[in-house]
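#struct-pred
JK: can someone run the complex with 6-O-phosphono-beta-D-glucopyranose? inputs below
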Amino acid sequence: IPVDPFDLVIFGATGDLAQRKILPGLYRRFHAGQMPQGARIIGAARSAMEPEAFREQVRKAIAEFVDRSKIDAKDVETFLECIDYVPVDAMGEGGWAELKDKVQDGRVHAFYFSVAPSLFGPLAERLNEHGIADSEARIVVEKPFGRDLASAKALNATLAAHFEESQIYRIDHYLGKETVQNLMAVRFANILFEPLWNAQYVDHVQITVAETVGVGGRGAYYDKSGAMRDMVQNHLMQLLCLIAMEPPYHFDPDAVRDEKVKVIRALQPVSPADIVRGQYAGVKASETRAAQPGYLEDSENPDSRTESYIALKVHVANWRWQGTPFYLRTGKKLRGRASEIAITFKAPPHSIFDEEDASWPENVLVIRLQPNEGMNLKVMIKEPGPGGMRLVQVPLDMSFAEALGEEGTDIPDAYERLIMDVIRGNQTLFMRGDEVEAAWAWTDPIIAGWEARGDRPRSYDPGSSGPEDALMLMHRDGRRWREIR
Ligand code: BG6
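RT: done, structure tokens with the ligand placed:
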């Protein structure tokens, strides 16, 4: 469905995110017929450059980051005609009058702040001062939204001085992922799961976001952040909320976000024994392995105590979840790239089968976020054959690509969907100010705790599934992590 005509101004248009995600994503939407005639994308950045030179950059970004099958020479040319550029000085007066001239009346206006958070304030101020952003304008901001509660509050206050909350779109790109939205469909459009979706029937939940990449190239940013701030406070927290929240009364931005905030507020402090932090080691060249730099080299900080891996056991203290632990883990340079949520159900209350034949491996519902998006429900059946009533666990496996054919494989990138939602004015998949603050309020004492104790992360082998201690986090509860493949 095409959206209304819009002017989208991208501040930081020559930066990495704009070139890798935002501009290629917009091209894909154009190619899919969703961008209306007359939509304008106005790049704004410090570099003095003619619009034609910027269009060349966009052409290159499309060639590099868009799948070949979607590149159509005529479409690229027509798309580039929608693109303009103005050099703008965020801290000074240069370029603002020109920008005002380019933004036309009578259409949706969105301003994407793809810049360092220190520029949010100056940009917001100038947009207002020059009368460029009207009361309907939308502001899009990226993570990191602060590095702790105090800085997040300060950012919220800066934005609130110029814009209403209904105008502010805080991006967490995990919410734009197809399967993440599917979590809500699976939970709230089926009767099957909801009656079992509580501590009485769920033994535990595992949320894994495993990556194979290291931090090379962005070590300086990452070293000040670490896995807790970079991934848990936002992406894993969002996944946890969608799994744990109560049904909202309607699929409506505030109804959904109200329920998520309640989950975050119900999160308990995490005890030091329930946290395992790791740092990937380097590899020396050998006959079987090529040399690889370790985290300390990648971060260029030989004394770094920042974690590139974290596993935590978390409790949601409310009526529904009391007693069901949520185990979260995420890390860099692990064995595989796999993001999934696994909900392990309890065993039936009484076994009618002989003990020996019924070891009751649990029912597990696995939702694969990436790659190979899909769902897998493990159920018990009788092992075929004459050998008596022997039970085996088999998967009911559904790959969205197979189930839905072409539509299932043609999944828009998270950014594409989120930008179109900004134009539509739908905030459901964006974080509200209070939500971000609640997430930091939970995260801050955990980080302060390990800093005060002077904890060092454990070293782990790149290509492994993380530090050994993380295995113990589950073993001592009589559970185990699902394998990372
Ligand atoms: C980003 C983090 O927000 O998410 C990165 O800053 C991480 O460190 C990335 O690699 C993971 O996103 P995705 O979509 O590749 O799972």
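RT: quick notes.
The first strand starts at residue 6 and ends at 11.
The mean pLDDT is 93.
JK: thanks, will look after standup
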